[in-house]
Design goal:
With about 475 residues, this protein is an alpha+beta fold. Helices cover about 45% and strands about 20% of the residues. A hairpin with a 2-residue loop joins strand 5 (about 70-80) and strand 6. It comes from Flavobacterium rivuli WB 3.3-2 = DSM 21788.
């Protein structure tokens, strides 16, 4: 056999063998159990895109095999709570959650469980840090710096030990290290403007010249960070810091929410070069602002600037949807119809069932402290305003609702349940459980964006009654 013929034969043989070789396997398994479920499904997502809807069986469990799942960070959501799960090649994971205390209950088992349980432990430690951090923003800089540096050193030691023991991948390490660092970075961003708000003191001139050097460690245009909650929290803190401190004077901090938030949009436009990251940043600013400032004229000015800067023109853009939904909740309008049922299972038509000034509030069995606070507050308000009706709308499953109803006395409000939380969220823009809506006696909207637990809520009721009687 000639050399050229032999070479060709060997090449052909190698080609044949390679074509017959088994393709690389990227299959993965994900299963779980949801204790006290609120809905009958779990959403499995990558970034902001839902990959699959995992239905719960009669035992409140789900199971799915992915024939090909790219290694990386994913999330699972059981409305309204969510958490992250990281899959390496061929991981097989099971998660157990209890909606009564979602985050604390998350436990992973199976192949790939150690790194995911570490991430949950780090998350909970960071949450403890965040709740303890309330007072540190009052400190003078040396004490503040010592406090956050000490906390970071403890978390870094915990991270280093687990990284050595578990031997996780470089890609997982990117998210683990980001979660560690971003918690620390966020505190540094919060400090100047929170300290200013509380003390009236502009601390910025006395900060070390290298105070913001940590910003150089973070590539803010890294698309892997899109949708990652520690990054979004940091991003919000940084934009707040840059915008609010710009408006700060020695006597006051600017309270013009419209001006400050448009400034945040402009800062985001200049700070981010990657269009996807920029759109995510713009969405974060817009989402937070639109749910706080419900002045319709302000909203339109803000949305006009948002539309100029955002390149996300898709019909699925959540900010555009929220903007449209808010327009339908303006004063004098009727509430969009939502399917609501009473304890007897009968439907309640919100557009026809209102005959008095009515306060609508929301609750869930997952927030027991909130239940107790609103129950007490409604009882007090009912005595002060006997001519006003109160409607409580629950967002849990039917079984969970009725079980919780048996534990509390809800005598001062008509009890209803929303059968479709997604519709409630979209049409009434319910993204916070403490939202409250006030209706006139004819069923029209008097105020669609208030809070029953606000200190001045009682006085606003008095004013609303007087205004309507005029």
């Amino acid at each position: 056999m000639s050399y050229s013929l032999k070479s060709g034969y060997i090449f052909f043989l190698l080609l044949l063998l390679s074509s017959c070789a088994k393709k690389e396997d990227y299959s993965a398994y994900f299963s779980g159990e949801v204790i006290n479920p609120r809905t009958r499904y779990v959403l499995f997502s990558k970034g902001n895109k839902v990959i699959d809807t995992l239905k719960l069986d009669e035992n409140n469990r789900f199971y799915i095999k992915f024939d090909s799942l790219t290694p990386g960070l994913y999330s699972f959501k059981h409305d309204p709570d969510y958490q992250y799960v990281y899959f390496d090649k061929n991981d097989s994971l099971m998660v157990t959650v209890n909606t009564a205390d979602f985050d604390r209950s998350v436990t992973f088992s199976g192949r790939g469980d150690r790194k995911n349980n570490f991430m949950m432990e780090l998350y909970m430690l960071n949450e403890i840090d965040r709740h303890k951090a309330y007072d540190i923003y009052n400190y003078e800089y040396p004490r503040f710096s010592q406090s956050i540096d000490s906390a970071y050193a403890l978390r870094k030691s915990f991270y280093d030990k687990n990284k050595k023991d578990i031997h996780w991948s470089n890609d997982f390490d990117f998210y683990a290290k980001s979660r560690l660092d971003l918690n620390y970075f966020s505190k540094k961003e919060y400090y100047p403007y929170v300290h200013a708000r509380r003390s009236g003191e502009d601390i910025t001139p006395s900060l070390p010249k290298d105070y913001y050097n940590y910003r150089k460690q973070l590539d803010v245009n890294n698309t892997k960070l899109i949708g990652f909650s520690p990054y979004m929290r940091y991003l919000n803190a940084r934009l707040n810091n840059m915008a609010i401190t710009r408006h700060f004077t020695m006597n006051s901090v600017a309270e013009d929410a419209l001006e400050t938030n448009i400034d945040k949009l402009n800062i985001a436009d200049s700070l981010f070069s990657n269009k996807d990251v920029k759109n995510e940043a713009l969405n974060t600013v817009a989402f937070n602002y639109l749910l706080e400032d419900q002045n319709i004229a302000n909203n339109q000015k803000f949305l006009n600037r948002y539309m100029q800067l955002s390149t996300d023109k898709s019909k699925d853009n959540e900010i555009r949807k929220i903007g449209q939904a808010i327009k339908k909740l303006k004063v004098g309008s009727k509430l969009p119809l939502i399917h609501l049922v009473g304890i007897d299972g009968k439907e309640f038509n919100i557009s026809e069932g209102i005959t008095k000034e009515t306060v609508i509030f929301f609750w869930t069995s997952c927030a027991r402290a909130h239940i107790e606070r609103i129950t007490q507050k409604v009882s007090e308000l009912k005595k002060l305003h006997p001519g006003i009706d109160f409607i409580a709308v629950n967002v849990d499953s039917d079984d969970e609702w009725k079980k919780t109803m048996s534990l509390y006395k809800f005598n001062d409000a008509l009890q209803l349940r929303s059968t479709n939380f997604d519709a409630l969220r979209k049409k009434w823009v319910i993204t916070k459980i403490n939202r409250t809506i006030i209706l006139n006696p004819d069923g029209t909207i008097k105020n669609a964006f208030t809070n029953l637990l606000d200190r001045d809520f009682d006085r606003s009721l008095d004013k609303l009654n007087r205004d309507f009687q005029k």
